[in-house]
Fold:
Amino acid sequence: MRWGRIIAIIVIFVVILAVAVWRLRQAEVAKTTAEMPGPVAQVQTAPIRQGVLTEQITAYGLVTPAPGALQTVSVPFESQVMQIMVSNGQKVSKGNDLLEIKSSPDTALQLEQAVQALDLARQSLQFVERKFELKLATNDQVLQAKQALQQAQLRLESMKKRGIGAPRIIHADVGGLITKVFVQEGAIVPAGNPLVEIVAQNRLEVRLGVEPDDINRVAPNQPVSLTRVNVPKAPAVTGHIRKISYGVDPATRLVDVFVTLPTTADLLLGESTSGAIAVASVQGLIVPHSAVLPEGQGYSLFTIKDNLAVKHLVQVGLRNDKEVEIKGAGLRAGEPVVMLGNYELKNGMAVKVEAAP
Structure:
């Protein structure tokens, strides 16, 4: 019996000790849990700025010749090309040699015939005048002979003024860019056919393609900021809308907008260009797009105060690709607004602000 009591006492003691240890551990866990802080969100912020927000339309296009910029070089008689001194894409100055030509065999024959016709007209007039002195010709016959001589002289002078005769070099009347050489050396070129095409220097413009939905938001004389697509680091050039084509291009399904360039623009003919057209602007409080969150039928955003997130219901106004105008109570310029990590936030939640990369 004595050993049974001893064993029972030992068991009771062990149980009491185990319960005490369990309660002690539970108290420590509760204390540790009570001391642990709530969840902390990692966020990035940007200051709310007070300023002007501009909405832009971005369009793409090519550098093309302006109206009247193309000059076609030709001669008013059939000719033969002896030497070509320029090539496509070459820059030329006023007075530079373009090509050397001479009269074609048929044109040379016409010149020779005109010379012979003039000699015959002179001889005919002299013959009629002698007959008139002998009373064998009338005044009308003398007058007709003089008219024939004048016509022969005019025809020969016209041919010489047009350059028919000895070989000649054709010079550039304006400085610019050779866009096309139409002929080859040795070719016989009919009168008036193009030999060379030149775009006059500083007579370029940009043809942009604008979406039909946006065409009512642009107008003549509106400024356009132009950027070279293949040279994005080049400084932008400001042009102005010259003309809007109120018809859809069947190839691109866009509306052509023609933009004049300043004389100092260093754009290349045929170069791809993007144009930013400002269509609206507003002054107010502005935040990055990512700072604004959908909230039911409206929007919200979070600011930071004492390392806690503060939720604001806001209205949005004008926006562009990067920023949006906001309106809401309790917001002021310079206040930090959460732009990254805001989807996880709740009002009053602790936050830790990380530096933007």
User: Anything to note?
Assistant: Residues 162 and 204 are 31 Å apart (CA to CA). Confidence is low (pLDDT under 50) at residues 29-36. The chain is about 25% helix and 40% strand. The two ends are 80 Å apart (CA to CA).
